[in-house]
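Supplementary notes for students who missed Thursday's class. We covered one full example, reproduced here. Read the sequence, then the structure, then the short commentary at the end.
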Amino acid sequence: MEQRMTTTFPDISISTERLVLRPFDDADIPALTEMMNDELVVAWTSVPHPYTTDHSEDWVRGIAPAERTDGHGIVLAVTEFLTHRLVGIVHLRNTDWRVRATEVSYVTAPWARGEGYATESVLAVAQWLFRDQRFERLELRIAAGNTASQQVAQKIGCISEGVLRNAWIARTRTEDGGWTDIRTDLIVWSLLPEDLEGVADQLADPGYSSFTDWN
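Structure (token representation):
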């Protein structure tokens, strides 16, 4: 008899030195609304714009928890350990349970950028995914012009695999202050369990200031 395959992630929280990754709750709604209206989030993601409180409520109460219960992936709110402020989102999606592969996307609030938070949170999720969940592949698809996101992929040890031409629609500011769609390529990055070896130690070195020098 074939063993029944697990097809949902557990309902979990993950802690790092500075961060707690946990399910969203209603208290996150105001901060989420503000974060999703940030210019870089609008430019590089497909979130509705303007992003309203209604959108946040739908996300927190419906869309995000359903990602896990429906077996598609898991959505984690990234928060500062000390202040409990919402730093960002890490979202695993398009999960293939037979192949043990999933795709990660992430958003960081404008006030929290430059601290290495995206790197720290995605790395923590990757370690959990490979060690606890026995996954074999994590994939990132990043718009060609989104250099900050590409840097996160590089820092956690991802390998660039190639280009999906014309595969995404980003948004750019128009002269009148509105937004217009632009087609762009996606760069595909991947992380395998063996790619992680040594990455965490490397990031914890004194040279990687954002793990230690922060207020």
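Commentary. The radius of gyration is 17 Å. The longest strand covers residues 159-173. If anything here is unclear, bring it to office hours.
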